Amino acid sequence: MLTPYELSADTRKRMEIMTESNDGFVIAEADLKLRGPGDLEGTQQSGIPFNLKIADLVRDNAILFRAREVAENIISQDPKLSQPEHLVLKQQLSRLGGNRYDWGRIG
C-alpha cells in the first residue's frame, strides 16, 4: 500500500488496523466505526425504500444482530408468516414493500 508522507488521523488509523489484522470482517467493522454507516439502507445502494431511522449500525450492533437472529428463526419456522402471531409482522413487511422483496434473504 502506498500513502503520502503526511497522513490524516483517519488514514493513519486505517493503516494501523490493516497492519494489525488480515481478517476482512475486523477491518470492515473498524472502518464502519471510523466512517459511519453512510447510506447503507438507502435506495442509492440497495434499491429498497427502507431506512433505519431508530438504529445506529455502530452503536446498536449487538441488538441488531439479536434482531436478525430472531427474524431468521421466525422465517425458518414460518416462511409465509401465516401463523397468527406473525400477522402484524406480515402486514408491516407488506406495507414496506409488498411482495417485491424476499425479506428472508435481506441482510
TrEMBL record:
Coiled coil: none annotated. Pfam families: RecG_dom3_C. Its EC number is 3.6.4.12. InterPro entries: P-loop_NTPase, RecG/Mfd, RecG_dom3_C. GO terms for biological process: DNA repair. Keywords: ATP-binding, Helicase, Hydrolase, Nucleotide-binding. GO terms for molecular function: DNA helicase activity; hydrolase activity. This is ATP-dependent DNA helicase RecG. It comes from Petrimonas mucosa. The lineage of its organism: Bacteria, Pseudomonadati, Bacteroidota, Bacteroidia, Bacteroidales.
